[in-house]
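Quick look at the format.
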Amino acid sequence: MFKKSFGFGSLIFVFLITVVVIMVGGYFAFSAYISPYLNDANLQEVYTIYNALSEDINEAELVTNEPTAQDYDNAETKLTDGGINIFNEYGDIDPALIEESNFLPAASITLTDKELASVINEFIENPLNLEKLGINLEDIGGLNTKVLEVNIETTDSVTVALSFIVRLDMQFIKERLAFFGYFLPSKLYIKSQSTLQFFEGEYTLINGNISVNNIDEELNERMLEILVGALRGDNEDFTVQDLHEATGKTILAGIQETSNTFNTSIIFNDGTITFVPNEVI
């Protein structure tokens, strides 16, 4: 999320481009060109996926824990009061402060999952933040890409369920594809569900799952198989499970790097993430 480890956007870009390839390929039936790259998917199958992804999504039904402006204000107050001053005079996140500061928080800082989502959104909404980190706007689908929901649930003393729902704005891609872009939906929704386990002082991903829009589980799995065929190249070891876990690993790495930047460790509890100051040696 912060510093140059921010890899969430580039991963979203992989999904964005490969799903676009599936939808455009399905509509225009470019069998001679597309088929070798779509894991032997037949045209009817690809077109079925295209139609499913094109169906309208009711965000009110999909999202149950959406952050608000108040969540951001709360997060800003908690972080600033706790010694993590990453905000300029206008309340915006300033990457220069992140890069230049040596953070020494005096006490633990606990953010709700909604507050965490609001901070991520505020960061990616500012193109200057992205430019300073070397991230192109198209890498996260344009400025209107948004984390709609973060959910943190503990299942036992060492196990955490972490889920993200991200809305990808397709408008930038649609414009770049000109006529072909007419056949693409204006938005895509990616849901990442990860199971984390606390071991030897840090969290490790033990299971992950990715779903796109509201397509059914069987069709979603087949779509991921097609994506794996398109992304695999010469890497025969790349599997659907790798794709399922990729987003979760990237999100967790971003959170852990943020924690390292703050000179803290992290603890997840139901609905919250706590940044605990490291001992000064």
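Next, a different chain entirely:
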Amino acid sequence: MLLLLACVPLDTSIETPADPCALGDGEGAVSTCLSPTQTDAYYADQGLRYFDTLETGFSGEGGPTYDAWVARWEWPPWLKLTGYGAEDMKTVDAIIRLLPTTVPERDCRTFTTQPFARCRVSFLYEEHPDQPCPIYEEFTFDDAGEITFIEAWTDTAALRPSADADDLWAEGDEVHRLSTKLPGLGNAEGQIDLDSPWMQDAAAADPDVADFLARANDFYGMWLEAYEAAGPDVFVEGCSG
């Protein structure tokens, strides 16, 4: 019997694939598994359209093309998950626009690897006219050209995603971002499945993914909690770095 068992090939089909693009037969792939499907101009324009929606004078027309479950993550001192789902994103942004705001300085560029669109901008708030707020923001896309994930940092040396002070567009190896760690953003639809085994495994292995998962499962509750905890100094902290 032992000899017979020794001759039976082992079934390794249940092992976790070493290739991050093969997780869940591709359903759990990470965003870097996708290649651009749109023109360079398209990706940069989507970034510009996004900042249109954050200006107080936004008409409601001509915004970016969101996936139905687009998510936005803003690193501290901002409030982490500040949008989950296209409709929730629009609701939160309408609240943001109540504070008179413009984004007069914008530099959006296209990259051949995810995130395909990356922008360096400056917000100007009417309540703080002498303190422009520098922001670096990245946009991840699915194959249809829809934005699936938005990630933002204060654009100062201490808070940018790259440990290299000269890497202003986060192209190097020493970059700390969430979008490339979330399984599902790299399938054709860029769909995150919060309950999938690959998401659960990623959350168990990475505290940033675990934090995202917890907030996505209770978006409004945790966003309101973070908003109340931030207090009145969040603008000064976030914009000064």
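DSSP finds seven helices and six strands in the chain.

See the schema section for token definitions.
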